[in-house]
Amino acid sequence: MASPGVVTVTPTSSAGSDQVAGEAWRPVVAAAVMEERKRKRKESNRLSAQRSRARKQQQLDELAAQVAALSARNGAMAHAAREAARRCAAVHAENELLRARSIELAMVT
User: Fold this and answer.
1) For the packed helices 26-108 and 16-24, what is the interaxial angle rounded to 10 degrees?
2) Triad 29, 18, 6: Cα angle to 5°
3) Is pLDDT above 50 for 79?
4) Phi and psi angles of residue 20, each rounded to the nearest 5 degrees, phi first
5) Which Gene Ontology terms cover its molecular function (predicted)?
6) What is the residue extent of each domain of the chain?
7) Greatest alpha-carbon span in the chain
8) 8's torsion region: left (phi>0), alpha (psi -120 to 50) or beta?
9) 42-46: Cβ within 8 A, 24+ apart
10) What angle do CA 27, 32, 38 make, to 5 degrees?
11) Measured between alpha carbons, how far is 17 from 19 in angstroms, rounded to an integer?
């Protein structure tokens, strides 16, 4: 049974010259089959490469979104750290002031 897309040539008479003419077409048919297979393989490879590029682009887009989200989170955390450092410095200054007042009050009594 012939494969789909394969063209076979069979002689229509049993005469020797017709059989030779029919056999002369076999290389042409084989070349046509090989060209069709080559064309299908190229098309398959082209589509596969296209899917691969689309997957890579999607991964790149996801990574870019992740970078943006992490950058925003990093900015928020840096702001919170600066604010905590400012409050710590204020508490430290207030603590020093209260300590000095405590020493003053201890001297008075």
Assistant:
1) 20
2) 20
3) yes
4) -65, -40
5) DNA-binding transcription factor activity; protein heterodimerization activity; transcription cis-regulatory region binding
6) 16-108
7) 138
8) beta
9) none
10) 125
11) 5
What is the reported pLDDT for 23? 67
> Cα angle vertex 23, ends 17, 26, to 5°?
155
Give the Å distances, CA to CA, from 109 to 1, 80, 100, 102, 106: 117, 43, 15, 11, 6
Amino acid symbol at 40: K
> How much is the mean pLDDT over the chain?
86
Q: Which of 6, 54, 50 has the alpha carbon at shortest distance from 42? A: 50
Q: Which of 18-32, 46-60, 65-79, 85-99 has the lowest mean pLDDT?
A: 18-32
pLDDT band per the 50, 70, 90 thresholds, residue 4: low
pLDDT of residue 1: 47
More confident residue, 54 or 24: 54
Q: Which residue has the tokens 């084989």?
A: 30
For the cut 60, the answer to whether the pLDDT of residue 104 exceeds it is yes
